[in-house]
# Entry
Amino acid sequence: MHNIRMIRENPAEFDKALKRRGLSPLSEMILAIDSSRRLKISVSEKERAELNKAAKDAGLAKAEGNEEEFQRLRELVSRKKDEIQILTSQARDEDQKLETLLMGIPNTVSEEIPDGDSELSNVEMRKWGKPKQYTFLPKEHFEVSGAKSGMDFEIAAKISGSRFVILQGAIAQLHRALAQFMLDTHIQLNGLLETWAPVIVNEAMMYGTGNLPKFGEDSYQTTTGQWLIPTAEVTLTNIINGLTVDESSLPHRYCAHSQCFRSEAGSAGRDTAGMLRQHQFEKVEMVSITTPNTSAAEHSRMTKCAEGLLEALELPYRTVILCAGDIGFGAKVTHDIEVWLPGQNKYREISSVSLCGDFQARRMNARYKPDDNGKPEFVHTLNGSGLAVGRSLIAVIENYQNEDGSITIPSVLTKYMGGKSLITDQGKLN
# Structure
């Protein structure tokens, strides 16, 4: 959520930041509600002071036996109480209106990110690895013989509908191996705290990370009003919801392997074949909680953590910084990591690492107490995929496919695959 004081002091800068996202100016509307709310609070406070004086004077009049003056003052007190109640109710309504408006406005983007209104304006930061040159035409993951027997989209559709898959055998084991490899790397090398958390959360948690109110249609809600998480970012970030922690305890660095659920309502007609875009998928998520002066460095660190996984898997990738028109709702700056998929002959997103500043912290009321005993300040939050497990599976299948339809297992995964180094064209471990 946004700092209303900042908007009061710099309305033009606020509108300028919104314009970079392709949004119309909103400061005038925000400040009109804010001004009306503040005026009612001010008048209410003045009325309350007058009420207190009238009540005191009424007591004196009663004590002096001045019945006429006492009755006049008693009526004044009653009238003031009614006026204060009305003003308080109106101010409360406008406060709610203001909060609802602010909750629906995306984060202001960092000056460092490029302008632009689509992914075409994203800027490549670096590339790693060279796409393999094949002596045959590489296939997409769902066409590779060694993967076909372990991926059943038809039965999954019968059971659950479109955009689901059943994984079995060697492919299911490879999927599990990837998740385990990611967790082990983050815990042992990257210093993240492994965390297991619920996948069902209260509505306030979704508001805290910015998934609500605007993106409710992209998530699944239970009949009890709770929500299935679209990513473990929701649970991990909300660990600090409502808390004030000591600066000396920061940064907090978490990772979690979880199921994720997205209705993908806005993706109709895109990536309908295979398992690139699913309603239910697995992801290893990274979340960091930092101070404002360390968050930029932490963002770079988290990006390197995600890139390191792809390098260990020897998968070519490129890292891009998203432009203002393509960045997510809660982010100030985002690095997308795109892995090379030879079956599609293009790079596709496999990780998105975002610095949110204090945007989520304000929504969650999450603060830290400075070491110098200064006034508590809002923390900065960051999140990123480390990595999307299903998309990593796709990348391994496509990049390690052989002409006969078999799939070579990356060397870093063989220990998770019982020492096996190949999935045959029949989908068997060898």
Q: What stands out?
A: The radius of gyration is 28 Å. The longest strand covers residues 346-357. The chain is about 40% helix and 20% strand. The chain has a mean pLDDT of 96.
